[in-house]
Design goal:
elongated
Length: 123
């Protein structure tokens, strides 16, 4: 069984190679840029509510735990560790599944088509 969604392989290597060597026309580059930016915006739009919901759940679980235990210091420490782990996980998901394709495309684009790099920046 393959873990298809655990690690994003990124923008296809052959596409990166073709862009870096200037094998695409201006229309094809504009189409790729539009497609990648649409995908990026959709993923980012869906990620923000999920991240907020995750932190709200962590806060609610921590508050209910703090009311039930005697040692508040251990509860606060556990809360800080949990927030740190959740933040790291969200950062990993953001960088690997939302930002990676766009970033790789921009790096490849800047080598042969620098005039189109600004079109692929997040506004």
């Amino acid at each position: 069984m393959r873990f298809k969604y655990l690690w994003n392989p990124g923008f296809p290597k052959n596409e990166i190679h073709n862009i870096e060597n200037g094998l695409y026309s201006d229309e094809q580059i504009l189409f790729l840029c539009e497609t990648i930016m649409n995908s990026y915006r959709i993923r980012k739009k869906k990620f923000i509510p999920v991240a907020i919901l995750g932190f709200v759940i962590v806060i609610i679980l921590t508050l209910t735990t703090l009311f039930m235990i005697e040692d508040k210091t251990a509860g606060i420490f556990a809360f800080l560790v949990t927030v740190g782990l959740c933040s790291g996980l969200l950062l990993f998901v953001y960088e690997n599944h939302i930002e990676k394709d766009r970033r790789q495309f921009i790096v490849a684009l800047s080598k042969k088509y620098p005039e189109y790099v600004e079109l692929c920046k997040d506004n």
